[in-house]
Each structure stands twice: as structure tokens, then as C-alpha cells.
Amino acid sequence: MTLPHAILAGLTGLALVATLxxxxxxxxxxxxxxxxxxxxxxxxxxxxxxxxHGAEPRLAANLASFLAVAHDGPLQMVCGVNAPPDxxxxxxxxxxxxxxxxxxxxxxGPQTSGANGKIGNLIALLPLARHDILVLxxxxxxxxxxxxxxxxxxxxxxxxxxxTCLYAGRGDSGFWSQLGAAAISYGAMPNMVVGLxxxxxxxxxxxxxxxxxxxxxxxxxxxxxxxxxxxDHAIGAAVAQLGLRVAVPPxxxxxxxxxxxxxxxxxxxxxxAVTIRGVAGAGHWGSLxxxxxxxxxxxxxxxxxxxxxxxxxxxVVRIALAGQVDRIHGRRTAxxxxxxxxxxxxxxxxxxxxxxxxxxxxxxxxxxxxDGRITA
Length: 376
What we know:
By secondary structure, the chain is an alpha/beta fold. It folds into 2 domains: 5-33 and 269-375, no CATH class; 38-261, Alpha-Beta Complex (Spore Coat Polysaccharide Biosynthesis Protein SpsA, Chain A). It is 48% helix and 15% strand. It has 12 helices and 13 strands. The strands form 4 sheets. Strands 3-2-1-4-8 form a 5-stranded mixed sheet, with helices on both faces. It is globular, with a radius of gyration of 21 Å.
């Protein structure tokens, strides 16, 4: 198949721009995490909020990482499920046995009305939280000992209403979960750093949202977001409406991926992409420029002489960025050969997200509305 010269030139030019974007991302990632974030263990009373769903791989160990943080003050973990038969209850029981001195509360619902199951879970577990500082984080996050100290230091800065965190991936269920982890570590996370560095993004992510109870009350509580798909972003936007900012310290958490098949990986990452589309609107189309390797591959297929060198350059920069992320994180997310594979899968998911109207959230089919809200 032969394409018109103008289209070939445009495709090659777009691939070159996308490669330059990846080079800029490499520089920005290095600079972002070069910032120092010293913080001593705090004495504030903290309630960790953990909405759970299902018996995820290594769930008890992931939760335990939050109990092992360096903290000198009262620390409570409040876990919640939407129904007592949920398999996550067994992980909480194992956690209690392994940490008999820790304060661990469990809510078994009932789930309140609303299409967003996680928010319903949070509404139910919140009454069990005893402390003023609330740290919400998804069940698949893993942290190190300095986590809470850096959060509290950031939250104490003038004008800060909430704190959120970036994260890299870890595949816990074989090939597909590792491929998804590569997409997170080497794609999604650097893109977020670019957004932060350029001021184009003001993220608030489920990896962590730390805020004071008074701030949560001022934005209307969790109930305000019961039918919102991008609940994390919406919480951050509501905090910003109070005239406060969402801080992002140079801290990299671990997202524990559990996808065991291509179908699970597709549904999970498509939901993320559609969520971003709901937040960014028409600007979501602009993220086409982040897909350097797939664009360069297309250019090389149709115009080898012009596209071939761009493809080589794109691969070199992407491999270099992956190495930079691994050095910052202190661990390798995935082998280097997975980088272009994850890039191509991410490009296909991006294309699908442009028109998708129905998504899957932990087995529940949700329909997107034009205002970013969802119906079950």
C-alpha cells in the first residue's frame, strides 16, 4: 500500500516530534526526582483508608507495607469491602494476625448508592477513621518506610490542601501483568512528570490522597463523587477550588499489577485511558504525540528511508528513559524488550479510548456520560 507523499511526510514528522517529546520526558524525569525531600518521622495522628475489592495477589503484604512506615505518632488502618463475602476480608484477617499490635479496623459495608463502588466503600468505612489526617490509597499500592514522613512534610507546607504520589509498576501475575507494569513505569509515569513540569497537568491520583478531615468536609465529603469515574482527579479539583494546591513530592510508589490475561489488561488500561479522556476532553487527542515508537514504526513501514532512522532514534530514547526510571526506582520493572511491546499496546488502547463509551470496573459495566459521570 502506497500513501500520498504529504501523508508520509506528516507521519514521519509526527514520529520525530514524538521522539523529541520522549527525549524531553527523559530530562524532566531526571530533574523531577533529583529534588530532595528530607522528612523525619512525624507525630501526627493518621488514619490510612484502604478500600478493598477481591483477593488480589500479595494483598496482605501490600497492606503491610503501610504499617511498616517510619512514624512516631498514632497510626490506624481502616480497610473496607462492599460486602462481607469479599475475598479481601481474609487478607485483612491475615494482616491482623501478623501485626497484633497494629490498629486495623474493617468495614463490611453496606455499599451506599452510586455507580462508583470505591467511593461507596469509602463512605462506609470513613466513620471508623478516628484521626484528623486521612491518607487514602488504592489496594494495589506498595510503599517504603519514608512514605508517610514525606507525605506529612508536604501536607504541612503553606497552601497545600492535599498530597498525591506518582508510582511505577510491578507485575505480580506473570507476563501480562508485567507488560502492564512496563506501560505504567515507562509510559504513564513519565507522561505525568511532563504534565507536572510544564504545568499542563494538576494530578490527584488514587495511589495516594492525603488530606485533613476538615478539607474533606469542605469539599462535600466522599458522597459528592459517588457517580464520578475520575473520582481521584475530581477530589483534587475540588481541593483546588478551595484555593489550596495538591502537592506531588519526588516519591515513587509501587503499583502491584494483577492482570493474568490480555483481556484483563485491556479492560484495566482502557478504563484508565477513558478516565483520562473524561478529564482532558478534546485535549486527550493531543496525547497522540506521546506514542513515539508506534508512530515511528508506522512511518518506517510506509517510508523506510525516512521512517527507519526515526524508529531507531525512538527506540534508543525509549530504552534510555526506561533505564532512567529503573535507576530512580531502584528496581527493574520489566526487560527492555517489553518496552516497544508495551508502547504498541498502549497506542492501540489510546485509539480505542477515543470512542469507548462503556468500561469495566472490577467486573461492573459502567457507561460514560458526557460530563464525566458514570451510570451502572
